Amino acid sequence: MQALGLPGKSFVPLIVGFGCNVPSVMGARTLDAPRERLMTIMMAPFMSCGARLAIFAVFAAAFFGQNGALAVFSLYMLGIVMAVLTGLMLKYTIMRGEATPFVMELPVYHVPHVKSLIIQTWQRLKGFVLRAGKVIIIVSIFLSAFNSFSLSGKIVDNINDSALASVSRVITPVFKPIGVHEDNWQATVGLFTGAMAKEVVVGTLNTLYTAENIQDEEFNPAEFNLGEELFSAVDETWQSLKDTFSLSVLMNPIEASKGDGEMGTGAMGVMDQKFGSAAAAYSYLIFVLLYVPCISVMGAIARESSRGWMGFSILWGLNIAYSLATLFYQVASYSQHPTYSLVCILAVILFNIVVIGLLRRARSRVDIELLATRKSVSSCCAASTTGDCH
Fold first, then answer.
1. What is the DSSP string of 256-310?
2. What is the rounded distance in angstroms from the CA atom of residue 28 to the CA atom of residue 22?
């Protein structure tokens, strides 16, 4: 951490980010200097959270087979590397400075009371279920509606004629350099829903790929039984609840996110066909790993710093995600289209050189803003009777 110009206390919030980026960002408030807090906050979104793991698991099963564990591990390592490189970039451009001395007095630790542990666990569980549940329901309704109607408002039989497909096809060519082709518009939708909550990416892809897999099957009303379908749905929900609170989940937290990473075999087959290669799938995962965090994380960044720094974090993440995904895919598929790949690679390198140059020129302005922040924090602490300005 000293090499990044950060104190040792920055390490703890970053480690917390492997569970969820929200407490990671909020944990930066334990740092004293504004520069150190901002650098830690900017690095936190690159720590791969548990919701991303569910996405990685599905793609690993579909594209990488026995090498799936290695692919997932490499993505985690890539996130750490990009967090470190982001810290170095900030240190040598807009946030120059040295780390403050690391002196921390260890508190008196106590064994937590079971009652307090249960109450706090229930509150956090309820908050997560309500927050994530509302997002998942809203996203599902939105996708179902736009996937059933055309832009003119007519009901469509083929999802490729739906409003969702039409709008996504317009945007999808932007992602061609990272291996997402125009007919794979479902992957584009997954990226947009993932910006709201990473937990819904797998559900989005499963819904859209499954719909394309069964669109040619004719519906026979005589064979449909509402009672049986309702009973099947209730039974499936009950089984999922039992699995969620089973001993294996309590003993192995990774099992808790297993349900988020389930995808039907038919949907996996369509997804494999749409991406076409493991290189395209891995490039997509690189983008998912590094691009904008979910809404909750963006809100936490805005609260702990400012909306301006939240915007910087979003733009920097998009740039890093698009650049690395493009470089990986174009290098991996260079033999298929050497001229196009060379143009993409050079464009990405040139663009990032320009970005770094602009950040170096903006250093003096950011120093003034950090100084102003430092003064406001000092004033807050001086005026506070408790000495707590966080």
1. GGTGGG---HHHHHHHHHHH-SHHHHHHHHHHHHHS---HHHHHHHHHHS-HHHH
2. 10
Region of poorest pLDDT, from 45-59, 81-95, 261-275: 261-275
For 264-295, the pLDDT digits (tens) are 677 788 888 889 899 999 999 999 999 988 88
- Average pLDDT for residues 258-269, to the nearest whole number? 66
Give the integer Cα–Cα distance in Å for 64 and 384: 56
Alpha carbon distance 342, 291 (integer Å)? 23
Report angle CA 218, 203, 16 to the nearest 5 degrees: 170
Single out the residue of 360, 354, 372, 370 nearest to residue 91, CA to CA.
360
pTM check: above 0.85? no
Six token digits for residue 283: 């490039």
- Alpha carbons 277 and 271: distance in angstroms, whole number: 10
Contact 22, 304 (CB under 8 A): no
* Amino acid identity for residue 384 in this structure: S
